[in-house]
Amino acid sequence: MGVIRRTGMFILQVNPILCDGFGHCAELAPELVHLDEWGYPIISKEPVPMADLGSYESARYAERGCPRQALHVAKVNSPAPVSNVPLNLPRPARAVSRERRPL
Ligand code: SF4
Fold first, then answer.
1. Whole domain around residue 48: which residue ranges?
2. What pTM was computed for the model?
C-alpha cells in the first residue's frame, strides 16, 4: 500500500442563499465554523492546508451533513496572494498646467 500525501490547501465555502441558518455545520466542524448571533455560519476565508487531516475531514463531514447542501469544500492550489499595496489609496492630484499654449 502506498502513502497518500495531501498537498495544497482548501477552504470551506457557504452559499448564503441556500443556508437556513440552523448552525448544524458548527457542530460538525467546530474548528472551522463559528456562528453569528442569528445562527449563520462564519467561516474563515484563509486556506487551510490539506495536510491538516482533522480539519479536512471535518470540512468534508460538514459538507456532507449540511441539510441544505450549502457547503462546499474547495481545493486551492496556492494561498491567497498577499498584496503589499493598500487598497483605497488616494488618487494623485492631477497636474494642472497653467501655461497658455501659443496661438
Ligand atoms: S449546516 Fe448548512 S444550512 Fe445549516 S447553517 Fe450550516 S451551512 Fe447553513
1. 9-73
2. 0.71
Atom number of ligand 1 nearest to Cα 24:
1
CA of 16 to the centre of ligand 1 (A): 9
User: Higher confidence at residue 91 or residue 37?
Assistant: 37
- What's the total number of domains in the chain? 1
The atom of ligand 1 lying closest to the CA of 69 is 2
Residue 3 lies in a domain: no
- pLDDT, tens digit, 9 for 90 and up, residues 42-78: 999 999 999 999 999 999 999 999 999 999 999 997 6
Q: Is residue 83 part of a domain?
A: no
Q: How many residues does the chain have?
A: 103
Tell me which residues have their CB closer than 6 angstroms to ligand 1: 14, 19-25, 41, 66-68, 70-71
- Output the domain CATH number for residue 32: 3.30.70.20
51 in a domain, yes or no? Answer: yes
